[in-house]
Recover the amino acids of this structure.
C-alpha cells in the first residue's frame, strides 16, 4: 500500500500548498514586496497543478485517499478524505490550470496595488477551497469547500473595501450564497436521514442498489430540491442570480477566475456528482432544465442592454450556466461538463481581455467610451475575437462544439419550449457578444485616456487561453463527426446520459449535421446584425422608453430589496421595539411597578394615628373571624 | 408548705435567675454610684454566670410541673430560657457603646442605666415564663410581664418625642391585645371549665365543633398575633420600632417573637391539637399575609429601622410557618428552632451595627448609608453579610433556614404556603438589594460617611458583630453548627 | 494523583484564591499580578485533569436531613470548568490596565465568581447545587454594579432579581424531588447520582414529573436565556465591564444549558418528551428573534448580546430534540460560543478602551487603520457565523443534523432553525461592514493603535482554538460522546421510538 501513501502525500501537497501560500502572502506580503509574492503565488499554483496532473495521468481511478476523522455522527462518521474520479479530476485540472494562468495575469494587473500580498493570499485561499470542494469525498467536506469559496468571493469582491459599494456587493454575494447553502444543509440532513451516512460513494452505491420506500422517496426528493437551491445559489441561477452582476465590483482577475471559470460552475459539478440521486426524481431534473433555460434566456435579454463591459460578461456567464443546467436537466451531464470546460476557457479569455482593455484605458469600463481599439491593442483584439467567435458558436471553435452538443440534446428531447428558448438565447448571445466586440474595437475612439497594450504577462495568458478556447473542441468531438468523444468516455464511468438517439446512424448523422448548420447560421446572423447595427456607433442607443425595464435589469434588485430586505428590517424593528421592549420588558417593569405602587398604597395606611390602627386591626380581625367561621366549621 | 415551694424553685432555678439578678441590680443601685458601664458589666457577668449555670445543669429528660401546675419545666423551657438569656446578653452588650456616651441626646436618657437593665431582665423573665407556661393564667402572666417591661424600654429616651410616642403606642396596642387575648382565654375557660393545658387538651378532644371553643381559640390566636405582629395586627410596629432605642428595637424584633412563638407552640400543638381544624387555616392565612404584605410595604420604606420592622414582620410570618410544620410530640421542631436561632443572630447583629452607626439626632435613612463601603469597609462588609442573610440568598445561613421550612412545608403538603413563601422571599430580595446597592454601589456620598461616630466600637460590640457574621456566613455552608445543638438538646429525632 | 482528593483541590482552589487576592494590600499592580498568577495556576491545575472521565468525592460532613457535600466530576462538568478557568484567566489578563478603581475587590470578585461556578458544576447534591447556583449571582451583581456603565443599577437589579425569581421556583421543584424520594424510600438524600439511579427504574408519574420539570426548565431558561426570558441579557451585557461580559457570556449562560443537560432532562425524561415541542418552538423563535433584533442594534455590545440569544437558541434546540448527536453538538456549541463571544467582547473592549463609545457608527474603515484587529474580528465572526472549518460549524452542524433525525419533535423546527444560519450572516456582516469597511472618515478613528503583544497573547489561543476545534473536534468530542451515550442509555426507554 505504499503506493497509496505516496499518492496521499501528493494529494495533500496539491491541496495544502495554496492554503500555506495564502497564509504566507498575507503575513509576509508587505515585507518582501510584489516580486516575492507574485513568483511565490504562481509557482505554488503551478506545483499544485502539476500534482493534480500527475494524479490525473498515473492514478487508477476512482482513488479514495483518507486522512483523519472529522465529525462523529453517532453511528457513522465523516472524515477528511479525497475522492479522485473523472468528475473531480477534470474540474480540479481546470481549476488549477486556469487558476495558474489567471495568477500570472493578476501579477500584471494588480501591479502597484497596496494590498498586493492580501490579494494573492485570498486568491490562493480560493483555490484551496475550490480544490476541497471538487476533491472532497464527503458532503460536509464538499460543504467546507462550498462555503470557503463563498467566503473568498466575499473577501475578493470587497477587496477595495474603502469604497462602500464594493463592501456591500461582497456582503450581498455572501448572503445570497448563504441562502443557497441553507438548501444544501437541508439536503444533507435529508440524505443523512435516509442513508445514515454522508460519504458520497456510499450514498451513490445505496442509491444504485437500493429500492426506496415511499417515505424515503419524500426525503430524497426534498434533498434534491435542497441541492438545486444550493446549486442555484452558487451558480447564480434564476432566483439567486442577483449577486453575480454586483460581484463585478471586484478586480477583473477575480471575476475571471471565480465568477466565470470555477466557482460558479460548482453548482453544475454538484448536480453531476449527485446525478444518480437526481435520477430517482425525474420531475426535479425537469425543474433544473426549465430553470436553466429560463435563466439563460432571461440573462441574455439583460446582457444586450448593458453598457459596462464586465456586466455584459457577467450576464453572459449566467446565461451560459443556464445552458449547462439545461443540459444537466435533460440528463446529458457529459454535454454540460464539456460546455463547462470550454466555457471556462473562453469566458476566462473574454474577462481577461476585458481586463486588459480596462487596464489599458486606466479603469474605464463603460463601452460607450471605448471604440477603435483594434489598432492600439492588437493582441488583445485578436484574442478577444477568438473568444467572441467561440461563445457565439461559430464552427469549428470549442464554443460551437459544446453548445451544439447541448442544442443537439435539447432537440433530441423534443420539448419545443426548451428548444425555442435555447435557440433564441443562442442568437441573443451572438448578438450581444458581437455588440461588445464592435463597440470596443471598431468605430472611432470615444474614450478620454490614451489606450496602450498590456504588458507581456497579461497578453501571453490571453494568447494561451485563445489557443485553448479555439482547440478545446477536440476534447469531445462527437462520434458522428468522426471524433472520439474522449471526455464522454472518460466521464461515462461516473455519470450516465439519459437521452439515447435511438434512430439509425445515417439519419442521426443527417439530423446532427443540419442542426450544426442551423446553430452556426444563428450565431453568424447574430454577429452580422450586431456588426451592421453598431458599425458607426455614435454613443447613445435604446433611447425609447420601451427598453427602460431591460436596461434596469427588470428592476429585480429593487424588487428583492422591497420584498425581502425592507420587510425583514421592519420585522426586526418590530421584534425589538414591540416584542422585547413593550411586551416582555413591559411585563417585567410592570410587575416591579405594581409591587412598588401597592407598597406606596399600603404605606398610606401607616398614618401614625392610633385610632386608624385600631380600626384597621378590627376590620382585619373580623375578616379573619368570618373566614375561619364560614370555612370548615 | 414551704418545702414544695423551695423544691419547685430549685428545679426551675434558671427561670428565677432573672428576678434575682434584677433585684441585685436594684440593691447595688441603692448604694453604689457606679456609672452606666459598671451596671452593664455587672448584668453582663450575671447573665454569663446564669447562662453557664443553665447549660451545666441542662437535663433533657426533666419534665416537672412546678408551682402547682402553673409551669412545666422541661427541655423546651430550659432551651428557650437559654436562648432568651443569650439574646438579652447580646442586647446588653449592644447597649454598652450607647450607654457610655455623654452627648446631649443620650446623657439625659442614660443616667438611669440600672432602670433600663431591670426592665430588660424582667421582660426576659416574662419570656421564660411564656416558654414554660402550662396554664392559661401563667401564659397570661408571662405575656404581661414581658410586655410591661417593654413599654418602659420603648419609651426610655424621655427627651425624644419619637421614643415616648413609640412607648405609648406599644402600651395602647399591648393593652388592646391583652384584652382580646383574655377574651379568648375566658371563652376557652367557659367551654372547658379548666385553665391547665393538660386538662383542656383532654376536654378539647370531645368539644371538636363547639362554637364557643372556636371563638375562644380565634381570640387567643388574635392576642398572640398582636405580639408576633402578624399582618392585620402589625400596624403599630413601624412607629414602635422607629421610635424605640435601637437595641430595644432589636430586642423587640427577636426575643419578643421567640417568647410568644414558644408559648404558641405549646398552646397550639400541645393543647389545641385535636381542634386544629379551627385554627390551622387562619394561622396559614396570618403567616402568608405577613410574609407578602410585610415585604411589599418594606419596598418603599426610606428609613432603615422601618424597613427592618417590616422585614421582621415577614420573618415572623416565616417563623409562623415554621411553627405550623413543627410537631412537639414527635420532637420535630428543627425548622422553627433553626430559623429562630439564625434569624435572631442576624437581626441582633444588624441592630448592633445600626446602634454603632446612627448619630441619634435624626432617624437613620437608607440614603445616609450611601457609598459607606468607601470609608468603613469592615462595617459595610458585615452589613452586607447580614442583609444577604436576611434576604435569604444562598450561601448564607438565611437561605438554609428558609430551605428547612420549605422542605417541611412540602413534606406535610402545605403547597400554597410554600408558593407564597417563595413569592415573599422574592419580594424581600428586591428591597434588600436596594439597600445593598446604596451601601456598595452608589457613587454619591451618604451623610454617614463623613459622620465619625464619637465612640469607637469597643470590644463588646465587635464581639457581637463577629459572632453574628460567623454564624450567618458559616451557618449557610455548614449548618452543622446549630443543627447539632438543636438535635441533641431537644432530644429530637 | 487523579483521585477524589484532586476533586477537593479543584473545588477549594478558587475559594483560597479569592481569600488570598482579597488579603493582598499594596498598590494595584501587585494585586493584578497575584490574581493573574492564581488564575493561571488554577488553569494548569484544571488542565492536569484532562484525562479524567469520572471522579466522585464523598464528604464526611454529614448534615441534617441527608444533605452531603458530595462532589462529582464528569466530562460535562470538566470541560465547562476548563472553559471557565481559561476565560477567567483571559478576562483578568485583559483588565490589567483597564480597571482603575477598587482593583483588589475587582479581582477578588472574579475569583469568587469562578469559585461559585466551579462549586456549582462539581456539586452532586441538588441542594448545594442550588446554593451555589444562586451564589453565582452575588459576585456578578457587584461586578456589574460597581464597574458597570451608566444604567448599571437598573441592569444589575434586573439581572439579579430575574434569575433569583426563576431559581426560587426551581427550589420548590428541587425540594419536591427530595421529598418524593424520601417518601418513596424513607431515606433522606439529595445526591443526584442516587436520585438518577432511582428514577431510572421507577420514574415519577408524568403529571408530577411535568410540573417539577417545568420549574427546573423555568430557572434554567432564564439563565440560558431562552426566548421569552431573555430581556435581561442585553441590559446586563451593555452595562457590564468588558471582563464581566466575557465571563457572563462565556460561562454563566452555559450554566443554564448545563443544568438542562445534567439535571432537567435526565431526571424527567418523559416530561422533557412531552414539552419538547413548545420548548423547541421557543428556541427557534429565540434564534430568529435574536438574529433579526441584533441586526437593528447600533450598540455593538447589544448586538453581540442578541447574537448570544440566537446562538444559545441552537443549543437549546439541540437539547430539547433529544438525540445523541444533537446533544454532542449542543455541548460543543456551548464551548464554541464561550470562545467566539468571549473573544468578540474582548475585541469590543479593545475598541471601547481607545474610543470610549460602543456606538457602531462611531467607527468605520478600521480595516485600513487596524488591519490585525480586523483579521481577528473577521475570524471570530466566521466562527460565530458557523463557517465550515471553524468550531462554530461543527457544533451547529451536529445540532441540526442530529435534531433532524429526532422523533421527539417535528423536523420543521430544524428547518426554521437553519434559516437562522442565513440571518446570522446578515447581522454579523452588517457589523463588520459598519466597523471595518468604508473610508475611515472620523479623525478619532485615525489615531487608534493596532494590537500589541499584550492583545496577541489574549487572542492567539482563541484563534488557535477556533480552527483546531473546527478541524479536529474528536479530541474534545470523544469523552463527551461517552457521557451522552451514558445519559441516553438511561433515558432511552422513555423516549418515543
Amino acid at each position: 500500500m505504499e503506493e497509496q501513501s505516496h499518492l496521499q502525500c501528493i494529494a495533500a501537497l496539491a491541496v495544502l500548498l495554496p492554503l500555506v501560500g495564502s497564509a504566507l502572502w498575507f503575513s509576509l506580503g508587505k515585507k518582501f514586496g510584489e516580486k516575492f509574492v507574485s513568483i511565490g503565488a504562481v509557482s505554488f499554483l503551478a506545483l499544485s497543478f502539476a500534482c493534480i496532473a500527475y494524479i490525473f495521468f498515473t492514478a487508477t481511478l476512482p482513488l479514495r485517499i483518507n486522512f483523519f476523522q472529522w465529525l462523529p455522527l453517532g453511528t457513522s462518521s465523516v472524515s477528511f478524505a479525497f475522492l479522485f474520479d473523472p468528475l473531480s479530476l477534470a474540474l480540479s485540472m481546470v481549476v488549477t490550470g486556469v487558476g495558474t494562468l489567471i495568477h500570472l495575469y493578476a501579477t500584471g494587473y494588480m501591479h502597484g496595488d497596496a494590498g498586493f500580498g492580501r490579494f494573492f493570499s485570498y486568491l490562493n485561499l480560493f483555490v484551496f477551497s475550490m480544490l476541497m470542494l471538487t476533491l472532497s469525498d464527503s458532503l460536509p467536506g464538499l460543504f467546507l469547500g462550498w462555503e470557503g469559496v463563498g467566503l473568498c468571493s466575499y473577501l475578493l469582491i470587497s477587496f477595495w473595501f474603502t469604497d462602500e459599494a464594493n463592501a456591500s456587493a461582497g456582503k450581498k454575494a455572501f448572503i445570497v450564497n448563504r441562502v443557497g447553502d441553507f438548501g444544501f444543509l437541508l439536503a444533507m440532513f435529508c440524505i443523512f436521514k435516509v442513508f445514515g451516512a454522508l460519504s458520497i460513494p456510499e450514498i451513490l452505491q445505496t442509491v444504485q442498489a437500493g429500492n426506496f420506500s415511499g417515505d424515503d422517496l419524500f426525503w430524497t426528493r426534498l434533498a434534491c430540491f435542497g441541492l438545486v437551491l444550493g446549486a442555484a445559489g452558487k451558480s447564480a441561477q434564476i432566483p439567486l442570480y442577483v449577486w453575480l452582476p454586483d460581484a463585478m465590483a471586484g478586480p477583473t482577475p477575480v471575476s475571471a477566475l471565480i465568477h466565470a471559470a470555477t466557482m460558479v460552475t460548482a453548482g453544475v459539478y454538484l448536480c453531476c456528482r449527485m446525478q444518480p440521486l437526481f435520477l430517482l426524481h425525474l420531475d426535479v431534473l425537469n425543474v433544473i432544465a426549465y430553470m436553466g433555460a429560463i435563466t439563460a434566456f432571461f440573462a441574455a435579454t439583460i446582457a444586450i442592454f448593458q453598457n459596462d463591459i464586465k456586466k455584459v460578461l457577467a450576464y453572459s456567464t449566467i446565461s451560459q450556466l443556464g445552458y449547462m443546467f439545461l443540459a444537466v436537466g435533460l440528463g446529458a451531464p457529459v454535454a454540460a461538463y464539456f460546455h463547462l470546460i470550454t466555457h471556462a476557457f473562453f469566458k476566462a479569455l473574454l474577462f481577461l481581455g476585458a481586463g486588459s482593455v480596462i487596464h489599458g484605458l486606466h479603469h474605464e469600463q463603460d463601452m460607450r467610451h471605448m471604440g477603435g481599439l483594434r489598432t492600439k491593442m492588437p493582441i488583445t483584439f485578436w484574442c478577444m475575437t477568438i473568444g467572441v467567435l467561440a461563445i457565439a458558436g461559430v464552427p469549428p471553435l470549442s464554443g460551437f462544439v459544446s453548445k451544439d452538443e447541448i442544442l443537439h440534446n435539447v432537440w433530441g428531447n423534443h420539448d419545443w419550449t426548451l428548444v425555442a428558448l435555447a435557440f433564441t438565447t443562442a442568437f441573443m448571445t451572438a448578438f450581444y457578444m458581437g455588440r461588445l466586440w464592435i463597440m470596443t474595437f471598431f468605430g472611432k475612439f470615444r474614450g478620454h485616456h490614451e489606450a496602450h497594450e498590456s504588458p507581456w504577462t497579461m497578453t501571453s495568458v490571453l494568447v494561451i487561453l485563445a489557443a485553448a478556447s479555439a482547440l478545446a473542441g477536440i476534447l469531445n468531438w462527437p462520434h458522428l463527426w468522426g471524433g472520439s468523444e474522449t471526455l464522454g468516455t472518460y466521464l461515462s464511468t461516473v455519470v450516465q446520459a439519459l437521452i439515447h438517439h435511438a434512430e439509425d446512424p445515417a439519419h442521426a448523422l443527417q439530423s446532427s449535421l443540419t442542426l450544426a448548420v442551423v446553430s452556426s447560421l444563428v450565431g453568424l446572423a447574430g454577429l452580422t446584425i450586431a456588426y451592421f447595427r453598431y458599425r458607426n456607433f455614435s454613443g447613445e442607443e435604446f433611447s425609447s422608453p420601451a427598453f427602460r425595464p431591460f436596461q434596469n435589469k427588470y428592476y429585480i434588485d429593487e424588487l428583492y430589496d422591497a420584498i425581502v430586505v425592507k420587510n425583514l428590517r421592519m420585522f426586526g424593528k418590530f421584534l425589538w421595539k414591540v416584542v422585547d421592549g413593550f411586551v416582555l420588558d413591559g411585563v417585567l417593569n410592570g410587575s416591579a411597578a405594581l409591587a412598588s405602587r401597592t407598597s406606596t398604597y399600603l404605606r398610606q395606611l401607616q398614618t401614625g394615628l392610633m385610632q386608624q390602627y385600631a380600626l384597621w386591626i378590627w376590620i382585619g380581625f373580623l375578616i379573619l373571624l368570618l373566614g375561619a367561621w364560614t370555612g370548615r366549621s | 408548705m414551704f418545702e414544695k415551694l423551695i423544691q419547685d424553685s430549685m428545679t426551675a432555678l434558671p427561670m428565677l435567675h432573672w428576678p434575682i439578678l434584677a433585684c441585685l441590680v436594684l440593691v447595688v443601685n441603692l448604694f453604689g454610684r457606679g456609672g452606666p458601664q459598671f451596671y452593664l458589666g455587672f448584668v453582663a457577668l450575671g447573665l454569663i454566670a446564669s447562662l453557664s449555670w443553665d447549660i451545666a445543669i441542662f437535663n433533657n429528660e426533666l419534665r416537672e410541673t412546678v408551682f402547682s401546675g402553673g409551669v412545666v419545666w422541661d427541655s423546651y423551657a430550659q432551651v428557650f430560657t437559654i436562648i432568651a438569656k443569650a439574646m438579652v446578653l447580646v442586647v446588653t452588650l449592644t447597649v454598652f457603646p450607647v450607654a457610655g456616651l455623654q452627648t446631649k441626646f443620650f446623657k439625659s436618657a442614660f443616667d438611669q442605666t440600672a432602670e433600663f437593665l431591670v426592665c430588660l431582665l424582667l421582660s426576659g423573665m416574662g419570656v421564660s415564663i411564656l416558654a414554660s407556661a402550662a396554664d392559661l393564667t401563667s401564659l397570661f402572666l408571662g405575656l404581661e410581664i414581658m410586655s410591661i417591661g417593654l413599654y418602659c424600654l420603648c419609651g426610655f429616651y424621655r427627651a425624644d418625642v419619637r421614643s415616648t410616642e413609640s412607648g405609648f403606642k406599644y402600651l395602647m396596642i399591648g393593652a388592646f391585645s391583652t384584652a382580646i387575648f383574655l377574651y379568648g382565654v375566658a371563652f376557652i375557660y367557659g367551654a372547658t371549665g379548666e385553665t391547665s393545658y393538660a386538662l383542656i387538651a383532654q376536654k378539647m378532644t370531645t368539644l371538636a365543633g363547639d362554637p364557643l371553643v372556636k371563638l375562644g381559640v380565634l381570640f387567643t390566636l388574635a392576642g398572640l398575633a398582636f405580639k408576633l405582629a402578624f399582618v392585620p395586627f402589625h400596624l403599630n410596629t413601624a412607629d414602635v420600632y422607629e421610635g424605640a432605642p435601637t437595641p430595644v428595637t432589636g430586642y423587640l424584633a427577636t426575643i419578643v417573637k421567640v417568647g410568644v412563638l414558644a408559648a404558641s407552640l405549646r398552646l397550639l400543638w400541645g393543647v389545641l391539637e385535636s381542634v386544629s381544624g379551627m385554627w390551622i387555616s387562619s394561622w396559614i392565612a396570618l403567616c402568608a399575609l405577613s410574609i407578602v404584605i410585610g415585604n411589599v410595604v418594606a419596598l418603599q420604606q426610606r428609613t432603615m429601622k422601618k424597613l427592618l420592622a417590616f422585614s421582621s414582620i415577614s420573618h415572623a410570618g416565616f417563623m409562623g410557618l415554621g411553627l405550623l410544620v413543627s410537631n412537639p410530640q414527635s420532637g420535630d421542631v428543627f425548622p422553627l428552632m433553626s430559623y429562630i436561632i439564625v434569624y435572631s443572630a442576624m437581626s441582633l447583629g444588624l441592630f448592633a451595627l445600626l446602634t454603632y452607626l446612627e448619630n441619634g439626632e435624626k432617624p437613620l435613612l437608607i440614603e445616609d448609608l450611601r457609598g459607606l463601603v468607601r470609608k468603613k469597609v469592615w462595617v459595610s462588609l458585615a452589613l452586607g453579610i447580614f442583609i444577604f442573610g436576611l434576604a435569604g440568598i444562598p450561601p448564607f445561613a438565611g437561605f438554609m433556614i428558609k430551605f428547612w421550612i420549605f422542605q417541611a412545608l412540602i413534606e406535610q403538603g402545605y403547597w400554597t404556603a410554600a408558593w407564597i413563601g417563595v413569592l415573599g422571599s422574592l419580594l424581600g430580595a428586591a428591597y434588600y438589594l436596594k439597600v445593598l446597592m446604596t451601601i456598595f454601589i452608589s457613587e454619591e456620598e451618604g451623610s454617614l460617611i463623613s459622620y465619625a461616630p464619637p465612640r469607637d466600637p469597643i470590644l463588646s460590640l465587635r464581639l457581637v458583630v463577629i459572632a453574628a457574621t460567623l454564624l450567618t456566613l458559616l451557618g449557610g455552608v455548614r449548618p452543622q453548627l446549630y443543627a447539632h445543638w438543636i438535635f441533641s438538646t431537644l432530644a429530637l429525632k | 494523583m487523579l483521585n477524589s482528593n484532586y476533586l477537593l483541590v479543584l473545588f477549594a482552589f478558587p475559594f483560597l484564591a479569592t481569600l488570598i487576592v482579597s488579603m493582598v494590600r499594596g498598590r494595584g499592580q501587585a494585586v493584578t499580578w497575584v490574581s493573574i498568577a492564581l488564575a493561571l495556576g488554577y488553569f494548569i491545575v484544571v488542565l492536569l485533569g484532562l484525562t479524567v472521565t469520572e471522579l466522585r468525592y464523598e464528604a464526611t460532613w454529614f448534615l441534617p436531613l441527608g444533605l452531603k457535600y458530595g462532589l462529582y466530576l464528569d466530562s460535562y462538568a470538566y470541560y465547562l470548568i476548563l472553559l471557565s478557568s481559561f476565560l477567567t484567566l483571559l478576562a483578568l489578563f485583559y483588565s490589567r490596565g483597564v480597571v482603575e478603581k477598587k482593583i483588589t475587590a475587582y479581582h477578588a470578585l472574579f475569583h469568587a465568581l469562578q469559585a461559585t461556578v466551579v462549586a456549582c458544576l462539581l456539586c452532586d447534591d441538588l441542594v448545594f447545587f442550588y446554593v451555589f447556583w444562586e451564589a453565582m449571582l452575588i459576585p456578578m451583581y457587584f461586578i456589574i454594579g460597581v464597574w458597570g456603565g451608566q444604567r448599571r443599577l437598573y441592569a444589575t437589579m434586573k439581572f439579579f432579581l430575574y434569575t433569583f425569581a426563576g431559581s426560587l421556583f426551581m427550589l420548590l421543584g428541587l425540594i419536591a424531588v427530595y421529598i418524593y424520594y424520601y417518601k418513596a424510600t424513607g431515606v433522606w438524600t439529595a445526591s443526584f447520582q442516587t436520585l438518577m439511579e432511582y428514577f431510572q427504574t421507577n420514574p415519577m408519574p408524568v403529571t408530577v414529573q411535568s410540573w417539577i420539570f417545568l420549574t427546573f426548565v423555568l430557572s434554567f431558561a432564564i439563565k440560558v436565556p431562552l426566548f421569552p426570558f431573555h430581556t435581561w441579557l442585553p441590559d446586563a451585557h451593555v452595562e457590564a465591564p468588558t471582563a464581566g461580559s466575557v465571563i457572563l457570556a462565556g460561562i454563566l449562560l452555559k450554566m443554564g444549558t448545563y443544568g438542562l443537560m445534567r439535571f432537567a432532562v435526565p431526571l424527567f425524561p418523559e416530561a422533557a418528551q412531552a414539552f419538547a415541542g413548545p420548548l423547541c418552538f421557543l428556541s427557534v423563535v429565540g434564534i430568529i428573534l435574536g438574529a433579526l433584533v441584533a441586526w437593528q442594534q447600533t450598540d455593538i455590545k447589544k448586538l453581540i448580546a442578541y447574537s448570544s440569544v440566537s446562538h444559545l437558541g441552537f443549543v437549546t434546540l439541540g437539547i430539547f430534540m433529544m438525540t445523541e448527536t444533537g446533544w454532542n453538538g449542543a455541548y460543543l456549541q456551548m464551548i464554541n460560543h464561550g470562545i467566539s463571544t468571549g473573544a468578540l467582547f474582548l475585541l469590543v473592549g479593545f475598541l471601547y478602551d481607545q474610543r470610549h463609545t460602543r456606538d457602531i457608527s462611531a467607527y468605520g474603515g478600521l480595516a485600513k487603520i487596524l488591519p490585525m484587529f480586523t483579521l481577528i474580528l473577521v475570524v471570530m465572526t466566521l466562527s460565530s457565523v458557523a463557517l465550515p472549518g471553524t468550531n462554530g460549524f461543527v457544533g451547529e452542524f451536529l445540532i441540526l443534523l442530529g435534531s433532524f433525525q429526532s422523533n421527539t419533535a417535528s423536523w420543521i423546527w430544524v428547518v426554521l432553525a437553519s434559516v437562522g444560519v442565513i440571518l446570522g450572516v446578515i447581522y454579523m456582516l452588517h457589523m463588520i461592514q459598519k466597523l471595518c469597511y468604508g473610508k475611515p472618515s472620523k479623525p478619532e478613528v485615525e489615531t487608534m493603535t493596532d494590537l500589541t503583544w499584550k492583545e496577541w497573547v489574549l487572542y492567539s489561543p482563541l484563534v488557535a482554538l477556533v480552527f483546531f476545534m473546527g478541524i479536529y473536534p474528536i479530541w474534545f468530542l470523544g469523552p463527551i460522546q461517552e457521557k451522552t451515550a451514558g445519559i441516553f442509555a438511561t433515558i432511552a426507554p422513555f423516549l418515543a421510538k
Summary: Residues 152-185 of chain C form the longest helix (34 residues).
